[in-house]
Model the fold of this input.
Amino acid sequence: MTEPQSTAQAAAHYPGFTPATPPRQHWVAKVLIALVVLVLLVVIVRAFSKPKAKPPAPPVIPVLLAPARVGTLDVYLDAIGTVTPVYTDTIVSRVAGMITEVHFKEGQIVKKNDLLAVIDARPYVAVLEQAQGQLGRDQATLKNARIDLVRYQNSYKVHAIPEQQLATQQATVDSDEATVKLDEGNLAAAQVNVDYTRITSPIAGRVGLRNIDPGNVVTANGTSGLCVITQIQPITVIFTIAEDEIDEVTAEMASGRTLQALALDRAKIHQLDTGTLLTVDNQVNTATGTVRGRAIFPNATNMLFPNQFVNTRLLVKTLTDATLVPQAAIQRNNEQAFVYVVQPDSTVKSTDIKIVATEGETSAVTGVGAGAQLVTDGFDKLQNGSKVVQRKPEPAQPAGPGSAKGAHGANAAGAGAKGAAPGGS
Done:
């Protein structure tokens, strides 16, 4: 049998014939498959072996800084006080009568024994003259009785009169002496009433509003009074001290040190006067847990007015060589106070402190050294190890015309109360 010459002839001669794949085509297909698998493996390996990105560095927090420093700090006790005059007198008439003269003006400063008013003295002068006449008559009677007594004594010595007659004359003299003494008392009382018609000031001070006019008839020891006089130089302020602070105050007083007291207005801007602590009361008010203290002020400029409410600051002690930090730097966690201290690598570390005393915006503390840079603002995201950078403080807002006056007043108050400001070194 003859072998077919071509694939086409074979397919035509044998209907179920399938041409065989050449060996070259099989090799190419395998190579392509291998390449595809290799590429997939490379992609997968690179995807899983790609190094993870480093986490971003924590942000640098801008903060305000202030150094801890060594200085002195005045420790004050603040309280609300009431200006109280040393003396307050309601002037009343001791005798009844018509006012004939008024010698003072409302608001006038008077001295002790200055004449204030005069009451019609004619009725009292008349009584005085009657007492003088009665005294003169009884003195003459006494004189005559004494002469008779001497005569009776001489007669009795020679037995010219009985002893009973001498005794009767002695009793007459004694009776006349008592009458003269009674007359002298009546005369003194009449003279006192005449003196009472001239009403004088018992103290030096300021006269209040007048309650009488010339021609008014006043009664003796009336309740309304002619006027009220209050002593204003010097003047005192009564304030309260908490019972927990009594020991500290009394200990300073027992040491012989004079405690300075400052009187400020309601807004604590203007200093009204400077004085000293006079004394403290002898018992604690159980309802308020406080004890009253009294400070005395010279009040040379009359800035303190009776019954005025003022803010009182009592200088209890002065801390020297203390570590001072701004109050804004102190943070609190439950009962513990701490500050954030900036480290040399610009990170912060929380440091526990103990507050010894606080005055205004400054506190004396222990637990942190002088010169340490403390964070005073920017605590929102701050924690141990946070990196910080110092930012510039915001510029002050320009002051308007109204605020300039307030700033001037604040500066004046600061100058007056410079003892309350901490000093640094």
User: Anything to note?
Assistant: The domain at 121-196 is CATH 1.10.287 (Helix Hairpins). The longest strand covers residues 309-326. Confidence is low (pLDDT under 50) at residues 399-425. The chain has six helices and 22 strands.
